[in-house]
Amino acid sequence: MAGIGKTAPDFEDLLPAMAEKLGGEGLMRELCNGFKLLMDKDKGVITVESLKRNAAMLGLQDLRDDELVSMVREGDLDGDGALNEMEFCVLMFRLSPGLMEESQLLLEEILEDELKTAAF
User: Fold this and answer.
1) Looking at the 3D structure of the chain, how many domains does it have?
2) CA distance 24 to 65
3) Which of 96, 49, 99 is nearest to 72 (CA)?
4) 84, 45 contact by CB (below 8 A)
5) pLDDT score, position 100
6) Residue 114: pLDDT band by 50, 70, 90 thresholds?
7) Is residue 7 assigned to a domain?
8) Does some domain include residue 51?
9) Of 20, 51, 62, 117, whose CB is crowded by the most CB atoms within 10 A?
10) Does the predicted TM-score (pTM) go above 0.85?
11) 2 assigned to some structural domain
12) Rounded to the nearest 10 degrees, how much is the dihedral formed by the CA atoms of 74, 75, 80, 86?
């Protein structure tokens, strides 16, 4: 997807750094804040129209309408044509392979620690 490929490096570079600096809870708080900036205030979800209206805040003002539609479609897990807060957060993680890799490593560490301390 041309539009997402165009913007993904920014997210790939920033989300892992934000996660490291803010911690998990801080990162989720910032993602929630980003969602609120982009959402349609009346509907409580991010629509193509609200994304288009607010895209300049993320430096995405040059994206074409079809690219914005593709971004929403990629994150729309329930097929309603919009992104709720959970879908937005999942999409941001999916657009950041570095963050996904860090999450996997953290999960593996936690599981190893749990197995070491479990009494089997």
Assistant:
1) 1
2) 33
3) 49
4) yes
5) 62
6) confident
7) no
8) yes
9) 51
10) no
11) no
12) 170
Q: Give the structural domain span for 88.
A: 14-118
* Average pLDDT of the residues in 99-109: 67
Structure tokens, 99: 């963050």
pLDDT tens column, 76-103: 999 999 999 999 988 887 777 666 666 6
pLDDT attached to residue 8: 41
Helix H, strand E, coil C: the string for the chain is CHHHHHHHHHHHHHHHHHHHHHHHHHHHHHHHHHHHHHCECCCCEECHHHHHHHHHHHCCCCCCHHHHHHHHHHHCCCCCCCECHHHHHHHHHHCCHHHHHHHHHHHHHHHHHHHHHCCC
CA torsion angle 69 72 78 84 (round to 10): -140
* Residue 5 within any structural domain of the chain: no
C-alpha to C-alpha distance for 37 and 41, rounded to whole angstroms: 9
- The CATH number given to whatever domain includes residue 77 is 1.10.238.10
Q: How many angstroms separate the Cα of 46 from the Cα of each of 2, 54, 74, 81, 92?
A: 20, 10, 13, 9, 13
* Residue carrying structure tokens 């919009």: 82
